[in-house]
Design a protein that fits this description.
Number of helices: 9
Largest sheet: 5 strands, mixed
Structural class: alpha/beta
Strand order of the largest sheet: 3-2-1-4-5
Organism: Trinickia symbiotica
Strand content: 15-25%
GO molecular function, one term: nucleic acid binding
Number of domains: 2
Radius of gyration: 26 Å
Protein name: IS630 family transposase
Shape: globular
Pfam family, one: DDE_3
Helix content: 40-55%
Amino acid sequence: HDQTRPGRKPKISARKVKAIVALTTQQRPDNATHWSTRSMAAASGVSEASVRRIWHEHGLKPHRVETFKLSNDKHFAEKLEDIVGLYLDPPEHALVFSCDEKSQIQALDRTQPGLPMKRGRSQTMTHDYKRNGVTTLFAAMNTLDGSVIGHCQTKHRHQEWLSFLRKIDRSTPKDKELHLIADNYATHKHPEVKAWLAKHPRFRMHFTPTSASWLNMVERFFRDLSENQLRRAAFRSVPELVSTIERYIEKHNGDPKPFIWTAKASDILTKVTRARAKLNKMQSV
């Protein structure tokens, strides 16, 4: 019988792996903003495949960066609890709408026709384009069923916001209270808007904390609209763009699906507090 053989000695020691992880997370290469597998392999004396494996095992993605901004709103916790409460436990006999504007949607047309996708070839389009004007989409998403009230306008002043509020008023049952979640954009708090709201007491405004657009669920709808309908399309005019947006909303409302909010306010507050502490520690170094 063969004698018991020891396992194959690992090619890269645990100490070396730890050093690569530390180098990846704590330093930058001299001539770049982030490490590549090639530059890390050269700096650490291992193969690119080994670097790739170590990064994968430790969940490191140096080529990616995510943006963030912590809210400095003095009433952050209070506003957070208010809005998350509307999502998780909406009031009876009321409708909750997540509202915002998607401004400066451009009617872009390509300078030359593209080629359709076929086997072995991706869809093609020119890198340059013609600007044919812009529109602003005002949208209110019903957080209960996911349906959207939308209205495209040429500008996004308080006059257009008032026009949109009137559309919401016409489009909803008169016996329902309306709770509208919106950001702190100045048009939402204009004196004429406040005067109109005072005459329509069934409207209740709930403002998100500053720098906290992620709390507004309608942003998910805007993202889907951009990805599914606008990003790779070409529009010869603003009316063509507006018609496309209106058809998208109509189709969406034919089979709406709500975005389900699951995070509790206390959990979000804990994460934000932890992130703020880390940021303060980094800034004090």
